[in-house]
């Protein structure tokens, strides 16, 4: 059965950074499971943080980022297709396949092999690692990260998408940053009102993510090993490396 290492968790828990360090330790490549990072030009608002893939002068290859134009429709069916292509490529080159993201539906569609239009995915035997973060720490990280992204030019990024012809209605459907910043740009929200509503919405989104992951464990039979983000990253890497090597060995 096809082996897969999956890193999941709520927004602002440091998934990308951890996955990138893990990829270096396991000679791996990362496949993103983020429903909005697939879009080109949507960088700050989706938190691509591509610099996280460069560690100590080494670049960690990533897949399923910047593969669709902003404004296009992209769904879980297309994600499954693109994931399988990327997975086959990674494995064919002898690299460790690491799926990393917070879009629970995308992750589960691969692990459980959801069937669409009669198409059957190959089974994946996935080692699922969840990053656990204290609720108050998560809230603090979300708030500080939002302010940082606004300082980095998130409003200008989204205004540029509109100027380049991405329909306002589509941006609103992308939700969170793209919804509330767009409402500010078109004059339906004041700046501080936008920031406050967006912050609340991101906190609510993180709670929904955790609800989904708990459902994966408790109702849909997908085991997840949770690691606290306050545990030193070297220790977390050691734990996951040992678990992964055991899985590959069939233990």
Account of the 3D structure:
By secondary structure, the protein is of the alpha/beta class. The protein is built from 9 helices and 10 strands. The strands form 3 sheets. A 6-stranded parallel beta sheet has the order 6-2-8-1-9-10, with helices on both faces. Strands 3-7 form a two-stranded parallel sheet. The chain has a two-stranded antiparallel sheet with strand order 4-5. Helix 1 crosses helix 9, helix 2 crosses helix 3 and helix 6 packs antiparallel against helix 7. The radius of gyration is 18 Å and the shape is globular. It starts with a strand and ends with a helix. The model has no long low-confidence stretch (mean pLDDT 96).
> What sequence of helices (H) and strands (E) makes up the elements?
EHEEEEEEHEHEHHHHHEH
Distance between the termini: 13 Å
Structure annotation, total helices: 9
The whole-number mean of residue pLDDT values reads 96
Shape: globular
In the sheet with the most strands, the strands line up as 6-2-8-1-9-10
Based on DSSP secondary structure assignment, what is the total number of beta strands?
10
